[in-house]
Design goal:
Number of domains: 1
Number of strands: 6
Number of helices: 9
Structural class: alpha/beta
Radius of gyration: 20 Å
CATH architecture: Alpha-Beta Barrel
Oligomer: single chain
Largest sheet: 6 strands, parallel
Length: about 250
């Protein structure tokens, strides 16, 4: 019986017609007049694994360049995501470089519609030219040891936002929300990572960090932090030390 119900429900859902949301003229004008920034867009990983171009309109995806333009997006964190299966062999930095190479290539290929932004002035200039401003953002580990030379090299290549923990792993300097805690938040090298990011002018992303990591990062950082994809426990009480994917 449960399987029959599941199949029947699946058949019903497949047959439902998707009705476009009705947006009032007033709401549409407000949206178009506003500066719209999406702080977490997984855009390049699809092209890395499946091929294609960010300018392709996908029938089975959630985001692409045509829909970003149609939706009135002005700027985004153009996120490169290094998944956990690169970590055990120490391939995280190699994968960052691969993804950034492809991201930069795709942005350059579609330069008539999207452009790399390295600072706030770039975002303003790019928007004035009628294009989307792309700020390179890393989710996952840039280097599990927190090598500052690697961090500086990625900055020179255009990376401007870095997630503090290695996604749902605790790296060598910061605890994640979703792995056994090693440091009670940050160790001393984690503090050095934050100070170097402050010096370079990189944004520290505290999403996926443990509560202790977040609290200590706020105390240490001389610049504001960003929680790019985050929530409040008053709305969704997800444990800060969960052992599964958050």
């Amino acid at each position: 019986m449960p399987w029959t119900l599941l199949v029947s429900l699946g058949t019903l859902l497949c047959c439902l017609t998707v009705v476009p949301a009705q947006v009032s003229k007033r709401a549409m004008k407000l949206h178009r007049d506003a500066f719209v920034f999406d702080a977490h867009v997984h855009l390049i990983n699809r092209q890395f694994y499946l091929g294609g171009d960010i300018s392709d309109r996908y029938l089975d995806g959630q985001v692409d360049l045509p829909r970003m333009l149609e939706g009135g997006l002005d700027a985004l964190f153009f996120t490169v995501f290094v998944t956990e299966h690169y970590y055990p062999a120490g391939y995280e930095t190699r994968q960052v470089l691969r993804l950034m190479d492809l991201a930069l290539d795709q942005i350059e290929k579609n330069n008539d519609q999207i452009e790399l932004a390295l600072n706030a002035s770039d975002i303003e200039r790019i928007n004035q030219d009628g294009k989307v401003a792309a700020v390179l953002d890393l989710e996952g580990g840039f280097n599990l040891d927190g090598d500052l030379a690697v961090l500086r090299s990625l900055y020179r290549l255009g990376l401007r936002v870095v997630q503090l923990p290695a996604h749902n792993w605790a790296n060598g300097f910061a605890d994640s929300c979703c792995a056994p805690h090693r440091w009670g938040g940050l160790n001393e090298h984690g503090r050095r990572v934050i100070r170097e990011m402050n010096r370079l002018g990189m944004l520290v992303n505290i999403s996926h960090a443990s509560d202790e990591t977040i609290e200590q990062a706020i105390e240490i950082s001389s610049d504001p932090l960003v929680a790019a994809h985050h929530g409040l426990r008053s709305f969704n009480n997800i444990p800060g030390s969960c052992q599964t994917t958050c």
